[in-house]
């Protein structure tokens, strides 16, 4: 069997080629485990962060046999020796092989597609004797940086900061394919004088100043056209009153002058044939009925080109044409390469993987090794995945130190708790674990395996470490009842950003202490959107909400009274009391169990966040991949104590 019958093709689409031909690609996938540092709510099993879907089978170790015979040129940043210990956490190493497994588990499929794309292009270059050197890549990057008025270092830094694209990845996955496809398409990138002339007419040629009227009904369009033809001076008013294109209607139908070779050919032919004051027939374009009035035929701007600049402008326009052709030609060439390629996806097929150990895929009969795929995954995603593995190592070490462990039963119980808390219940009212797992994994784009590893396990581990420390006191219950079920202060509020403005507004409110006038002041002066847009009305203030000064002032006011000026950070707040609400539930015993459960969860989440922060701060971490070192607060304190003793 040959062709498609003998292979399982990867979805190598045109979009990758277009991206490689000059666009920076957004790097997808953020490790959910890292989000544990974002706050207690992110440590909960019900809130994993989106990741790439993982493979369900165990990650294979690459065999030593069957090395990949790859023609692809090495275009990464200058090669360095690959370190086999990528991090040390409290003197315990994390190996490169374990990191390779984890990056492969999360990003193997997406990275394999990109890797095979490069191999496929490299094979075509090899067949045609095309070589892309490091110097070629340096020149291209320098030219791109110059286009944006940046140094190379600043340009590469922006790619890293804004798109998380490392310099090595930029060279390998964007610049190298761009140059390779450009060389492969060289015969199709010739720019003719006629094409340059078209660009000159686009930018400097004649144009037509027009007004436009746009509606979606043919009958109305014909009616308006007839009125405009009878009285051309009425066109602007007709466009303002009837046109359904809001932008042009607001400008009484006036739109930017129409140039040649830019938009719809029928529109261009129509308006360029019109004289000033003439009304066009009704044109049907993009589901709209359009009528145009010619205001003025504008002459070409060729004479405005500075002396001596014409040749440079023509060269610049030629380059624009070449880049446009490049994108089209690259996609066409790649489609041809792909159509003729034989790709066997071993990585995604357990049966083939067992027959071809250590191979991720074959491309036209040549193997691409699993080891190469692992290294590519590390190159792209190693730093963020390693950070997650460091976090996991820290938690595992603390569990071991305290002789605790996370069992399968613990993990299942946490998933059941998450399903229950989010309302995933069976018809019998019991937690529906299967429905929850289906929802969360599909929604976040992860496998059950990764969801459990990256969200459920750390949640359970942290709960094991802090659960005995969390107690709900009677005072907690009393405060919780007051906050959730007690009376609330209904107020109007004005929020301003300066003490001086607050004093002015407060004085005006004091002179006319009515609800209506206070609302007018809020609408005029408040900088807070809710109070400004609702005549001062804001959600009722409850007790124990974390704003004690505001609460105290709100609850002591009587209806119709105005507060003093309340300082909250850089803002000043003035309140007008509307009175207190009446509680619906007055007996704390009616909701005690529910309160205890809710308060325990809140205190538990806070304790989990604090515990993780403490463990992370105290850990000794050497991250060789990110080239960072952390001595740990406990170690630093011990060193300081030892130095103090030596001084004595």
UniProtKB/TrEMBL annotation:
Protein name: peptidylprolyl isomerase
UniProt-listed Enzyme Commission number(s): 5.2.1.8
Catalytic reaction list: [protein]-peptidylproline (omega=180) = [protein]-peptidylproline (omega=0)
Start and end residues of each PpiC domain: 205-296, 486-579
InterPro entries cross-referenced by the UniProt entry: PPIase_dom_sf (IPR046357), PPIase_PpiC (IPR000297), PrsA_foldase (IPR050245), Trigger_fact/SurA_dom_sf (IPR027304)
Keywords, in A-Z order: Isomerase, Rotamase, Signal
The keyword Ribosomal protein is annotated on this UniProt entry: no
Region ranges (Disordered): 41-72
Composition skew (Low complexity), residue ranges: 43-72
Pfam families for the chain: Rotamase
SUPFAM superfamilies registered for this protein in UniProt: FKBP-like, Triger factor/SurA peptide-binding domain-like
Positions of transmembrane segments: none
Organism from which the protein derives: Blastopirellula marina
